[in-house]
């Protein structure tokens, strides 16, 4: 079982800044925990602030993995291109948001990804990634 | 650990009708499985087609349980009263939808519950309830 | 041939109040006439002011009758739950409105039921129910 | 009793094309059946693809008949002129749509005719015209 | 001085029907009065219920007259084609409405003609045509 | 003088929860005070979380009392059925809201009740009910 | 106890014109009655048709009185400046409307004042001012 | 015959500035011409840049004149107060706009005055005032 | 190979008026050139200012030709009837616009035809018709 | 170099009230500082709570000064009249807002002045006026 | 003659995935055919999933080529930056879309590019690029 | 004092193209002048056409500088990601636009950056950057 985790813009700040939104722990530290919890799963991680690089990651990892956990962050709400990339691959993509986007600004309530996602998990903090792994394990 | 599961209108049809939307298994059968998977959790289940009875369930179970898993179904999109009830209780409420509401009609994309929910899980079929239990177990 | 007639909120006032909207005759009196006009049809009648009870009626009568004549009144315009119930049953549902809802307030112009109805009959007063029976007789 | 039936644009295609929308029988054939079913009613039939000719038909037949059955088809949704013509005559106009316009594109949900119609009948196929005759017979 | 008066749909009913909207006098009678008031002006009159014929009138009379008085009635609010025709000719077009369209339904508040008109006169009844003549006389 | 007070969803929580919204005193305690302040008024009180039961209360008490004080809470903003019930009775209905709904979410700014109410009182806390009594005493 | 009453545009017409909207009694006459009913309250009254003078009144009387009763009339719906003035003072401002603004045109349904008001009283005619005094007396 | 002409904000600039919008002649000069053309009409003229003063003019002149010609300029589009003043008086008010407001910005297309005006004259330059006089002369 | 070219309202003005929009050459002259460039294609040409005649042309030529090039001009944006006609025939319809409708008014940006067209060609002037022929030649 | 500073409604409260919005210093004190910083500039200051007086100031000072610094406060968002006055004068007008209007309510995000302003400076507190002076000095 | 072809996000998938949208042939294969069909044209090809790189391509190739054929795919609907780049160069840009974007989701109906394009070609599959070449050849 | 200047898409064209929008001088030349005017300020300059690189610049320079001057150009109106980056750093960000975006297309009137900016400077041409430096110098 190979799972790719793809994080979008500003999520490289996890653990560094605005802990009320981005949490208090870096994603790298969290990833170590996740790997130890799921020793039989092979995880690959990619992050970018560039919309088009996220499209690249989705296209490439869509060929090589069994599932993708995607937190497109701000691009969730503006990127038709990322939505199209998700629609174009065959493996399930689970959409995750750390904060409760429905309790934030209105422009964060709509997602171009959800329609094509295997499922959506919102508002559980970092634990959302773990729930996404559970969902992919079937 | 006591968890209440509250299902809204037409979810009594689970396993009976429109399997492409409501799945092929009755909720009672699914609940048995869930109980066997989580023997240390005490589950209570309530379903109603009446909006106000769901408000009653949320108010009452909000006093007696450690968490609520709420699938308000069609009332998700129209009921401020249910949203207010969720806001009025202290225990976490996890919002679950069986189908991917973002891939259905536009009027199913907005939820009056999400803003006050501890988290939202959408589109994983019956497995969504299991993920919600996981999220409440901490 | 078994036909169920289901009336929604405030239609218990028929014959009592606001005759310009609800007509001058009680539904019970009208029903007697209807039965005498169609002696070979078995009619059942249910009315409720509670949205969820209408959902219950639709689910139950959807199993036991050959067709439903539904006047959901005010819930027509706000109830996704009733629309979902209509979509979930197999027998034809004919939507009836006594007054011409298109000549009233804008918020009465949209119906959550119509999309799933076998047909819609608007504005003929009590005669609309008779036309609905005709339509079900085929 | 003299009833005029007026059909709008593309309804000359009835029986020829897109049977899922326009049915499988020509209107002329249907009209013969209707006449044999109601031997005491005198029917006149007019069809045009031109909006203004429909206005003419409504104005003229509004002087000479006891009622009009109007299926303005696509002009239903765009023609204030036809709505004005209906408002300007004294005899009842019953609006009919063969298909369920509420289950089609959003731009077919609004009608400029309904407000002034004696009643509206939607979605019963060709049978809708028969129901309209019934409604006019009183 | 040659002035063309072009009237749109349902204005052939002037003097016959709905006097609260269309006035109590036929346009032909009114035209006689107008001619006697302005003996030095040559008037031509055209009316049609067909949008495209109004386009024809505007194109043709736009070549042969010194000014047009246009009451496009219901087409005012829906016809880009008539607006384009007005824009395409060189002589001044004065837009007239008998009733106060701003005191009627919202869909009568917008005009596709006004932008290209030399001026707009609304709500003075038949006198509006006389004011339009005055405006063209300079 | 007989006055009915009807409270809607979640108002059974008054004095128990979210004091910043629902105040710090139970409605039953408040009602005792009100009765002692107006010894010549006979008060009846009804509360329900079910929309349709509120319709029932309004219909019934509309026959037996001199006035109704109605706080429909969340249903204020979503229930055409309650608005219709208010429109259908002859006695004055005074609409009351404890909190200032205009300082809360946008979806709480519109009321389906106000149009048919004798008057509206917003934002004075529990004192609003007292002002409503004053208004009914004339 | 010093209470200021501030009336906005066209309310100087009270008692003179459009009695169905502005009532049949001049505000000066009504004020005499009010003073005799509340002999322990000192009332000051100001009226202007000028938006900015109302801002002046609110600023000044906000320093010298214990409460303001404000009927900003038409400016209620268009004046951010008056709303800002209300927000800038410390004493309670009770918003009053004589007619039921929710039963009139849509553009009268929104108020820039309500958000900052201590409370809002709508539709009770002149009695609304008396209820406002009651509310300020505590 | 006494006619009042009331001009709104920035119209004191007529003849001074932006001749493509405000024309090349001062209103005072134009008024002299108008008076010489209609020696039997008594004209009074008022201009203000203050919305509330225009309300005052309308109220006062509505008592003393036979008709008002009102060009409320920018306040046309924002002032409910001026619309209310027009509605409150008994004499006819003719709305005039010098430029073609329908060919300018969208926010100039709506008028709060038109609904209550006896008629509206748009886009004829200064001649519009003359046409308005004609319309009042009957 | 038989290709029909159908032009809508005001396109009979091509070469005569508003050359910045309608070009400097009559369509008849252009058609001669086109025929000489494609000697193996049989061209038929129809133009009308009447919406319903365009519906007629589409229905008839849809039976007799191999493809249609349709420039519905202003009716593009308002005519559901023309869109329905295009949907009802089996041969490919190529939509052409001479000017760049996306650089003009907003109401010209939407087309009721495009959804059913084989393809859309916008903004190339008269050359757009030639490209449309190329597209139909395969 | 003569610069006029014009402040709109409620800005006379600067230094007195709501320091989080209007700052902690009176404008008169600030103006002294400004004058000492720019000894070669002649400053004139005008403030009014009346929209029309601001129009007057702009018209008059537009003739006598080299530039205007305008903070129209709440009228920024509602006054077409002030926008028209700015458009009508020849000297540059710099629009200033003390607070960050884009971080406040939505109705403060649009300005009728900006389109005609030489430039816009938002959110720098009182320093914004100084930046505006800099911008005018060239 | 030098023509640049620039493709946007996910168009590197052409021939690989979702053949109903992206066709069954890789763009490289198609390009070979195109070159053989137009031996006198020099073609350059660039593709990127990164919005900003498309801006770079447009800026650079806008200096070195005679025309650009641009299929910005998903960025068409969201990228003002690409639209600005097209506006900033002097050579003609022909916008191409392989699928009929008007028959897909609503958010694909608007283009930020079209306004500045020399022309737009939609829905002809890969043949659209060939038509674009034709259009540039003049 | 270290100030970073970050320019967004197409601003590398400054001095080269569309001088009416982008000015007539390259940013590099302008930067030299700025440095000579503020010898005590250390300036760093970054430009990119790639949205995500701007996010990178903001994140990085937000750690190393005392303030940022950000002209995100077209991304201003579409990039939630850039707005999030501005919100995530602690140093002040001054938003600058060279042209008056409020006098251009509507889609340029909204900014995702402004809400989090220390201040906004619009429409002063290149001088806007100098004013931004002044604002940061305090």
Describe the fold and architecture:
12 copies of one chain form a homododecamer. The first copy, chain A, is α/β, with parallel strands linked by helices and 138 residues long. Chain A has one domain: Rossmann fold (3-Layer(aba) Sandwich). Chain A is 36% helix and 19% strand. In chain A, strands 2-1-3-4-5 form a 5-stranded parallel beta sheet, with helices on both faces. In chain A, helix 4 (80-88) links the parallel strand 3 (67-71) and strand 4 (93-97). The termini of chain A are close together. The model of chain A has no long low-confidence stretch (mean pLDDT 94).
Entry keywords:
Rossmann fold; alpha/beta; 138 residues; 5 helices
Largest interface: which pair?
A-B, 23 and 23 residues
What count of helical segments of chain A does DSSP give?
5
Order of helices and strands of chain A: EHHEHEHEEH
Question: Could you give a short account of the major beta sheet of chain A?
Answer: 5 strands, parallel
Distance between the termini of chain A: 11 Å
Outline:
12 copies of one chain form a homododecamer. The first copy, chain A, is an alpha/beta fold and 138 residues long.
Q: What topology emerges from the helices and strands here?
A:
12 copies of one chain form a homododecamer.
Chain A: E1 2-7, H1 19-22, H2 27-37, E2 42-47, H3 51-64, E3 67-71, H4 80-88, E4 93-97, E5 119-122, H5 127-137
Parallel strand pairs in A: 1-2, 1-3, 3-4, 4-5
Helix pairs in contact in A: 3-4
């Amino acid at each position: 079982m190979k799972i790719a985790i793809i994080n979008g813009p500003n999520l490289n700040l996890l653990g560094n800044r605005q802990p009320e939104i981005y949490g208090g722990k870096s994603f790298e530290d969290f990833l170590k925990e996740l790997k130890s919890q799921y020793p039989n799963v092979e995880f690959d991680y990619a992050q970018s602030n560039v919309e088009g690089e996220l499209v690249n990651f989705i296209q490439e990892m869509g060929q090589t993995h069994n599932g993708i956990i995607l937190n497109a962050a701000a691009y969730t709400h503006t990127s038709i291109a990322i939505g199209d990339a998700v629609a174009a691959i065959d493996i399930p993509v689970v959409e995750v948001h750390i904060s409760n986007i429905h309790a934030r600004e209105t422009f964060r309530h709509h997602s171009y990804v959800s329609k094509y996602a295997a499922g959506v998990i919102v508002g559980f903090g970092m634990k959302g990634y773990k729930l996404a792994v559970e969902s992919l394990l079937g």
